[in-house]
Task: structure prediction
Amino acid sequence: MDYYEISAAQLAEKVDVQRSSISHLLSGRNKPSLDFVLKILKAFPDVELYWLLNGVGSFPKNLSNITNISTPTIKEIVKENTSTTDQVKSVTKATEATVKTDLGNSSENLSEIDRIVIFFKDGTFKNYIP
Result:
């Protein structure tokens, strides 16, 4: 509030909360909710989330790091996804061939692949349906 030179009432109005909520937060009576934190980040984009939650980092946010980030175009996104889809199709065909080879030329009815899930080290995953 000091940085922006606004009062508690002005802050409450800017983030669309009751003035009493700001008063309770400032006095230490209440802790901020996730909704409140998100409203702060939306109203004040130069506030760093980690700094807001832990008091560690910098305020205001270092904008020089943000300016170097490029937003991909729709063409690039489509190309990337198409390339990935082609890779998955290739892997699917290779996997099917490997399964057939491993099982030999048996007359057993092979199950078809329902989906392929790729797990990434960052905890995300992609689900492909051939």
Notes: The longest strand covers residues 116-119.
